[in-house]
Amino acid sequence: DVKVTQSSRYLVKRTGEKVFLECVQDMDHENMFWYRQDPGLGLRLIYFSYDVKMKEKGDIPEGYSVSREKKERFSLILESASTNQTSMYLCASSSMDVRETQYFGPGTRLLVL
Amino acid sequence: QQQVKQSPQSLIVQKGGISIINCAYENTAFDYFPWYQQFPGKGPALLIAIRPDVSEKKEGRFTISFNKSAKQFSLHIMDSQPGDSATYFCAAKSSGNQGGKLIFGQGTELSVKP
C-alpha cells in the first residue's frame, strides 16, 4: 500500500525558530512535493524535487528551503519561522510516469507564535 | 494561464441530492484532470481523474464531465451522502510538465445534511 509519512502531525514553534518538516515515502517515487494549505487558497506548491539533490521552486518558495539527500526523504526547512507561516503543510510524491497521480501524506499543522 | 479556478467555495446539499463542483482552466497544454477528496485531519486522496480524450468518466456515484472547447470540467456526486462531506479539489497538469507538477483549484467544502 502506498505510504507517505510526515514526521509530525502538530507543531508549535516560536517566531525566529528554525523548523524542519520531514517527509518519507516508501514507493520509490522520483518526484516529491511540499505544499501549504490555507482556507480559500487551496494547495500552493512551495518546492518540488524530481531527483535526489535536485529541487525546483514552486509558487511560494520565499521563506522556505528544502533538502533531498535520499530518494525517499524530502525535508522542508523554515529558516526563521514567522507567524504568516502558520499553516497546514502537505507532502506528496509521484512517479515519473505522466499518467500517475500524486499521493499525499497526512499533513503537519504548524502554529508559529 | 497556469491557474485552475474552482467554484463554489462551499456547498451544502441534502442527503440524496446531487452535488456539483465546477472548475475552469486556461492552459490548453493540460491533459490530465484529477479530483482529490480530503477529509478533516487527512491528506488529499485521489478520487477520480479524466483525460481530455473523453467527455465523461463515471466511477460509482462520482462522475467527471469534461468540456474541452469551454476548458471546463466538473465533478458530480449523485445521491450525496453525509459520508461525502469533505473538501474537494480539482487539479490539472500537462504531460510535458517536468516533475508532474499539479495545479490545484481553491477547494470546495461540501457538507451533506442528513
Question: Which SSEs are present, and which pair or pack?
Answer:
The complex is a heterodimer of chains A (113) and B (114).
Chain A: E1 4-6, E2 10-13, E3 19-25, E4 31-38, E5 42-49, E6 56-57, E7 64-70, E8 73-78, E9 87-94, E10 103-104, E11 108-112
Parallel strand pairs in A: 2-11
Antiparallel strand pairs in A: 1-3, 3-8, 4-5, 4-9, 5-6, 7-8, 9-10, 9-11
Chain B: E1 4-7, E2 10-14, E3 19-25, E4 33-38, E5 45-50, E6 56-59, E7 62-67, E8 72-77, E9 86-92, E10 103-104, E11 108-113
Parallel strand pairs in B: 2-11
Antiparallel strand pairs in B: 1-3, 3-8, 4-5, 4-9, 6-7, 7-8, 9-10, 9-11
Structure description:
The complex is a heterodimer of chains A (113) and B (114). Chain A is mainly beta. In chain A, 0% of the residues lie in helices and 53% in strands. Chain A is built from no helices and eleven strands. Chain A is globular, with a radius of gyration of 13 Å. The N and C termini of chain A lie far apart (37 Å). With 114 residues, chain B is mostly beta strands. In chain B, 0% of the residues lie in helices and 52% in strands. In chain B, β6 (56-59) and β7 (62-67) form a beta hairpin.
Would you kindly provide a brief summary of this structure?
The complex is a heterodimer of chains A (113) and B (114). Chain A is mostly beta strands and 113 residues long.
